[in-house]
């Protein structure tokens, strides 16, 4: 589930995922869509193949961050 929280201008570049799972395929899909940053809920989102996920994000120059939601 993706959420657009604040500015509509940023909605095409920043995606917030309310977990459960992301992986390298997620990064590929977001990169193809032109997304530049993925924020996931810290502590609840399962990272599939963590090393490959991070390598994919780096190769796509996609920012990947964990956020604590209230």
What is the overall pLDDT average? 80
Large-scale geometry: globular
The number of helices is 2
Give the DSSP E fraction (strand runs of 2 or more residues). Answer: 25-35%
Annotation, overall tally of beta strands: 6
Strand order of the largest sheet: 1-2-4-6
Tell me the span between the first and last alpha carbons: 17 Å
Q: Return the structural class.
A: alpha/beta
Radius of gyration: 11 Å
String of helices and strands: EEEHEEHE
Major sheet:
4 strands, mixed
Unreliable parts = 1-11
What share of residues is helical?
Answer: 25-40%
What is shown here, in short?
By secondary structure, the protein is α/β, with parallel strands linked by helices. The protein has 2 helices and 6 strands, in the order βββαββαβ. The N terminus is likely disordered.
Describe it for me?
With 70 residues, this protein is an alpha/beta fold. 27% of the residues lie in helices and 29% in strands. The strands form two sheets. It has a four-stranded mixed beta sheet with strand order 1-2-4-6. The chain has a two-stranded parallel ribbon with strand order 3-5. The longest helix has 10 residues, at 50-59. It is globular. The two termini are 17 Å apart. Residues 1-11 have low confidence and may be disordered.
């Amino acid at each position: 589930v993706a959420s657009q929280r604040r500015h509509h201008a940023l909605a095409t570049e920043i995606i917030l995922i309310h977990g459960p799972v992301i992986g390298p395929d997620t990064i590929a899909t977001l990169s193809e869509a032109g997304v530049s940053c993925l924020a996931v809920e810290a502590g609840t989102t399962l990272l599939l193949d963590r090393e490959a996920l991070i390598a994919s994000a780096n190769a796509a120059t996609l920012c990947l961050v964990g956020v604590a939601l209230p």
